[in-house]
Design brief:
Elements (H helix, E strand, L loop, with lengths): L8 E12 L2 E13 L4 E5 L6 H9 L6 E6 L2 E2 L7 E4 L11 H6 L8 H14 L15 H13 L5 E5 L7 H18 L2 E5 L3 H7 L2 E5 L6 E6 L11 H14 L5 H4 L3
Parallel strand pairs: 3-8, 3-9, 6-7, 7-8
Antiparallel strand pairs: 1-2, 1-4, 4-5, 9-10
Helix pairs in contact: 3-4, 4-5, 6-7
Protein name: ABC transporter ATP-binding protein
GO molecular function: ATP binding; ATP hydrolysis activity
Organism: Geomesophilobacter sediminis
């Protein structure tokens, strides 16, 4: 589904400072980025560079020290249903079934018949038909994240924010979930912004890869990924993009190490 009214997400000269004891820590500095409607953007950077802080500001869970985020013309200052968020941990309610966890993401005023239809649609979307009555502890990590994604999509958000959603998964499950998220994105065409430490993952999923500097976090470079999908991680063009991004991380290191991929 194309985002309503084709709204772009605009991050405009964003700064974020934290007070730690008697010191002020600059987490983000002059971050500007535009996510076009239906675009998939990956954000990579070293630990502590402010990637997750940036995502939390876009979600309305943190406030910026300066600058602003807009969806279309409307400034974002608080959480809202037009933005969904998926965290590294699935954060499901353990006493609720898969069905109830997904339904929990629905607007309170939604009529019961419509709610049931939406849950059915999203169970189908994330490939969990048949697991409606299961509880979170009965699911694998990947299945739990599918429930979390379904819940986040229940209100047809214009933007889905993914904060290291596969970080706790094993390698094979992680690849499977990457393919699942890509399938969901191709079906829904929701604007997606993914924060990840995995450069291959960023290239495999993203239309563009945003490389952030170490703290204070700034946008060091935006690397386009003009490769057709599905992408071959061993293809020459994929490897060349990987080298470009690695070079940004290791530009101060001797060249052989920067290209040892």
């Amino acid at each position: 589904m194309q985002t309503e009214e084709g709204k772009s997400l605009v991050i405009d000269r964003l700064d974020k400072q934290f007070s730690v004891a008697s010191d002020v820590v600059q987490a983000l500095s002059e971050v500007s980025l535009v996510a076009r409607p239906g675009e998939f953007i990956s954000i990579v950077g070293a630990s502590g560079c402010g990637k997750s802080t940036l995502l939390r500001i876009v979600a309305g869970l943190e406030t910026a020290t300066a600058g602003e985020v807009r969806l279309g013309e409307r400034p974002i200052r608080n959480p809202g249903l037009e933005r969904g968020m998926v965290f590294q941990e699935a954060r499901l309610l353990p006493w609720m079934t898969v069905w109830d966890n997904i339904a929990f993401g629905c607007r309170a005023e939604t009529p019961n018949a419509e709610r049931r239809e939406l849950v059915e649609q999203h169970l189908e979307l994330v490939g969990l038909k048949g697991f409606e009555k299961a509880y979170p502890h009965q699911l694998s990590g990947g299945m739990q994240q599918r429930v979390s994604i379904a819940r986040a999509l229940m209100n047809r958000p214009e933007v889905l924010l993914l904060d290291e959603p596969f970080g706790a998964l094993d390698a094979m499950t992680r690849i499977t979930m990457q393919q699942e998220v890509l399938r969901i994105w191709e079906t829904e065409r929701t604007t997606m912004i993914l924060v990840t430490h995995d450069i291959d993952e960023a290239i495999y999923l993203g239309d563009r890869v945003v490389v952030m500097s170490s703290r204070p976090g700034t946008i060091r470079r935006v690397v386009p990924v003009p490769l057709p999908r599905p992408r071959d991680r061993s293809a020459y063009e994929f490897v060349q993009i990987r080298k470009e991004i690695y070079a940004e991380f290791f530009e101060d290191v001797q060249r052989p190490f920067a290209y040892a991929i």
